[in-house]
Amino acid sequence: MSFSSEWEDIYAAGAHHSVWPWSELISLIMRHAAPYKSQTPCRVLEIGCGVGANIPLVHWFGGEFWGIDNSSSALESIKSRFGKKVKLAQADFCAEIPFAGPFDLVIDRASLTHNPTLGIQHSLEMIEERLAPGGIFVGVHWFSKDSDDFTRGIPSEYPDVRKGYKDGPFAEVGLVHFFDRDKIESLFSNFTIEVLDHVVSESYTPKPERLAWWNIVAKKK
């Protein structure tokens, strides 16, 4: 439906092989999902799990991990490190989520943001169906229109989606979706948004650059 084949090429080449959990994701999970308080192991699904950077976090708080990604190279990397300690599926998560759930927590670190709006909408509908009552979605690094990169990319056939980056963090990654507040609130209209943070980072050396992104915590109603 919307998977960019560029990501298989990236992972196969050994790029984007992050193996440490993302600090913003850790903070939001521990503050708002509180998996350590659960009487049973927290069931966690990651959308676009890549090479498994967030698996150590899930295992640290005693959770059970399910991951979905459409890159066979990324999933093979996870299998070589974690074996049967995790459950994985290769699929386009904007078209299907092969796991039935229910999940207590669904996480996404800058994976859904590389898809068109309709694909994101469909994925969020599937996520909502698979979340347990009161389950939590935590998404970080949903790119903001306030980023300089929004104006640097080539407009695609999809509104608010850019492509064609030849350098920088988005080089050769295919589609990059940028959001404003209204669009995020519309996408999550079936959830209760508990946290919506707009983070802006400006650097001056070695070159002036403005980065901006959204972090989201949403609860199933």
UniProtKB/TrEMBL annotation:
GO molecular function: methyltransferase activity
A UniProt-annotated Pfam family: Methyltransf_25
Gene3D superfamilies with a match to the protein in the record: Vaccinia Virus protein VP39 (3.40.50.150)
InterPro entries, alphabetized: Methyltransf_25 (IPR041698), SAM-dependent_MTases_sf (IPR029063)
Keywords, ordered alphabetically: Methyltransferase, Transferase
Residue span, Methyltransferase domain: 44-135
One GO term (biological process): methylation
Record has Transmembrane as a keyword: no
SUPFAM superfamilies from the UniProt entry: S-adenosyl-L-methionine-dependent methyltransferases
Protein name: Class I SAM-dependent methyltransferase
